[in-house]
């Protein structure tokens, strides 16, 4: 048995040193003997004595040493296991399915489980699911929070085949790919607390604008205007000071605010209640003062935070004001937006934009006009108005229109085949892309979201782009526009284009059919002048009436046939009143109804006539998509609701298109959203 135990490696070299020294002494002895016999004899005796002593030591001590080595090797594994068991780092071994196989004491103390616990690791840490464990990858890591402690969890795959190479009891086939998973828990609570504290102390920049400063002052006696301004200023400064921030007035109605990120978090939690607090300032002013806030944070530099804040305030104003927008590097969050934007009494902006539009068109040879996909009356009417402007300036003009709905067909018939209009007045996307070039200007009407335009490719092909729209801006907007005129207070794009028409050229002539289109767009978007209608809306309608628009003729264009009327009535009949204030219904028209989405929108309008209804939602399934029409009067911002579902629109008129979901599923999704928004105080 003893003879079977052999050393190797460094230990074998160590035991061979005596032999090597003996050989060296023999060689030296030969050399000494050749020089002097007597010295050689003496050296030979010493060498023999040395070899005898070394032989005795090796013979008697080697078994003892080998036994000690064998004993150490046996205990070494036990020491390793004990050290791993006593390791202060929580450590656990899992099988391929994520079930616990072995734990150390630190892990057991962390999760308060016994040594024999063998359930799935997910039962303890819900974040560690099977898909988070190593599969194709050898290593994975993730962040978790457990018992108010932060951990970085690292998972490592350990192939069983590698472990069994030197095993006497286990053997696996060549194709065996079984493995264990070692999971380490590195606590980072203190580090993350320090990082969060440092992040909370980082500075954010905000811009605060008074939306209706001039209008509010005009509603107060002149001697009291300074008092109103002082009260508003005091309210803002006191609120910002309570957040440990600084507010500096940079213009009469504009503030620059600097505060910590921690304070922005507090503002978010309070849902920017300063929006409502400023409205409480009242010294007899007929109009409540509203504010818009743009916040920029998490930029790489302070200047970048300021640019974020500028972008955020532009979004807040473009969406109608009375709201806050927080912009981070990769995220935009909206708060407020419960008030209608105040209509501006002055037309200075419209006149300036009209002159700018004239200069842009005059510098080009061709004008391409495009609205949104599935064009409606407002989109087409505004396009017709721009067409008239282009023709007045003696420029070729084309309206991009791919699909003509049954509701739009009567208006298109006014121009198709008429001597006064070119055959290529209305073209499709392919024709438009062939005509697009350096000498063309693209005018986009009734939409500012590039993805839902009639032909998004045109936005890339045309260097000169003009945007005219009345929808509140969202996160996705048309970038690099030469001229952008977006007014959320306007009732319709047709209203905006009508105002521009009056400043384009002296004595511009609008044909009666064109006036009918513009007037029709205003009638449809205002629901017969019942919603979102201001003084300028009626002024624009009066101008069109003088230009030849016929009220009776327009009304006849949009009369429903019996099938559409029945479908609308059926939608109203089966409506459900959810949570006492929200009407939800579905539109299920038959095959004889050519424009189901229009019927759904009309049904949503009708539901608002029911007492107590704050908002209405009608779901229409059409061409494998779910179209949702949302309407409200003044209490609920349906734009915010539809944006959370991926759509948009106005405060009182909005919509969304859903794919890959049933009507019942879409209704359930809306109800969940309404519940959440009501609980959080958003509506």
Per-chain topology:
Layout: H1 10-15, H2 17-35, H3 37-86, E1 91-94, E2 100-103, H4 105-111, E3 139-146, E4 149-159, H5 160-163, E5 179-187, H6 189-200, E6 203-210, H7 213-218, H8 225-242, E7 246-251, E8 254-260, H9 261-269, H10 274-279, E9 291-296, H11 302-318, E10 323-327, E11 332-336, H12 348-362, E12 366-370, H13 377-392, E13 396-400, H14 409-413, E14 426-427, H15 429-435, E15 440-445, H16 457-461, E16 464-469, E17 483-486, H17 493-504, H18 512-525, H19 535-547, H20 551-557, H21 562-573, E18 576-578, E19 582-587, H22 596-607, E20 615-622, E21 625-632, H23 638-644, E22 648-649, E23 653-658, H24 663-679
Parallel strand pairs: 9-10, 12-13, 12-15, 13-14, 15-16, 16-17, 19-20
Antiparallel strand pairs: 1-2, 1-5, 3-4, 4-5, 6-8, 6-9, 7-8, 10-11, 18-19, 20-21, 21-23, 22-23
């Amino acid at each position: 048995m003893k003879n079977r135990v052999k050393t190797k490696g460094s230990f074998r070299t160590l035991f061979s040193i005596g032999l090597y020294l003996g050989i060296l002494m023999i060689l030296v002895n030969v050399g000494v003997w050749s020089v002097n016999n007597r010295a050689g004899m003496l050296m030979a005796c010493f060498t023999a004595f040395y070899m005898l002593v070394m032989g005795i030591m090796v013979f008697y001590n080697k078994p003892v040493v080998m036994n000690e080595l064998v004993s150490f090797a046996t205990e070494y594994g036990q020491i390793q296991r004990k050290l791993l068991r006593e390791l202060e780092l929580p450590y656990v071994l899992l099988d391929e399915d994520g079930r616990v196989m072995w734990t150390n004491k630190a892990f057991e103390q962390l999760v308060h489980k016994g040594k024999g616990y063998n359930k799935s690791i997910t039962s303890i840490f819900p974040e560690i699911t099977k898909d988070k464990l190593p599969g194709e990858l050898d290593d994975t890591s993730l962040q978790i929070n457990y018992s108010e402690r932060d951990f970085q969890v690292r998972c490592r795959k350990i192939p069983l085949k590698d472990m069994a190479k030197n095993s006497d009891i286990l053997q696996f086939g060549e194709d065996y790919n079984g493995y264990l998973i070692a999971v380490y828990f590195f606590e980072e609570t203190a580090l993350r607390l320090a990082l969060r504290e440092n992040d909370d102390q980082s500075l954010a920049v905000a811009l605060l604008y008074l939306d209706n400063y001039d209008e509010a002052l005009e509603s107060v006696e002149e001697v009291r205007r300074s008092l109103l301004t002082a009260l508003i200023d005091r309210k803002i400064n006191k609120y910002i000071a309570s957040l440990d921030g600084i507010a500096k007035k940079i213009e009469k109605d504009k503030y620059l605010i600097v505060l910590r990120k921690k304070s922005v978090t507090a503002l978010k939690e309070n849902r920017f209640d300063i929006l409502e607090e400023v409205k409480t300032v009242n010294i007899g002013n007929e109009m409540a003062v509203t504010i818009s806030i743009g916040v920029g944070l998490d930029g790489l530099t302070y200047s970048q935070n300021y640019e974020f804040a500028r972008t955020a305030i532009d979004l807040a104003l473009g969406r109608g004001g009375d709201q806050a927008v927080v912009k981070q590097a990769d995220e935009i969050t909206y708060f407020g937006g419960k008030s209608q934007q105040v209509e501006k009494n002055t037309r200075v902006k419209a006149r300036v934009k009209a002159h700018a539009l004239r200069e842009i068109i005059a510098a080009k040879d061709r004008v391409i006009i495009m609205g949104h996909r599935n064009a409606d009356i407002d989109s087409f009417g505004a396009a017709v108005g721009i067409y008239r402007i282009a023709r007045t300036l003696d420029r070729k003009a084309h309206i991009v229109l791919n699909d003509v709905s049954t509701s739009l067909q009567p208006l298109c018939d006014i121009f198709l085949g008429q001597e006064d209009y070119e055959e290529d007045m209305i073209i499709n996307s392919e024709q438009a892309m062939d005509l697009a070039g350096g000498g063309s200007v693209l005018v986009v009407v009734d939409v500012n979201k590039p993805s839902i335009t009639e032909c998004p490719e045109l936005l890339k092909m045309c260097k000169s782009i003009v945007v005219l729209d009345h929808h509140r801006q969202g996160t996705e907007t048309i970038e690099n526009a030469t001229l952008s005129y977006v007014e959320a207070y306007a009732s319709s794009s047709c209203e905006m284009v009508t105002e521009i028409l009056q400043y384009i050229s002296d004595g511009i002539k609008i044909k009666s059919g064109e006036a009918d289109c513009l007037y029709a767009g205003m009638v449809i978007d205002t629901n017969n002048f019942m919603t979102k209608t201001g003084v300028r809306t009626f002024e624009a309608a009066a101008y069109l009436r003088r230009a030849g628009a016929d009220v009776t003729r327009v009304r006849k264009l949009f009369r429903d046939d019996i099938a559409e009327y029945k479908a609308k009535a059926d939608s109203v009949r089966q409506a459900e009143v959810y949570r006492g204030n929200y009407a939800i219904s579905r539109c299920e028209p038959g095959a004889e109804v050519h424009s189901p989405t229009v019927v759904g929108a009309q049904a949503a309008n009708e539901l608002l006539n029911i007492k107590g209804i704050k908002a209405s939602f009608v779901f229409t399934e059409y061409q494998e998509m779910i179209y949702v029409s949302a309407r409200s009067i003044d209490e609920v911002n349906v734009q915010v609701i539809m944006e959370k579902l991926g759509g948009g629109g106005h405060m009182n008129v909005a919509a969304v298109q859903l794919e890959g979901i049933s009507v019942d599923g879409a209704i359930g999704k809306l109800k969940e959203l309404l519940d959440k928004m009501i609980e959080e105080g958003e509506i």
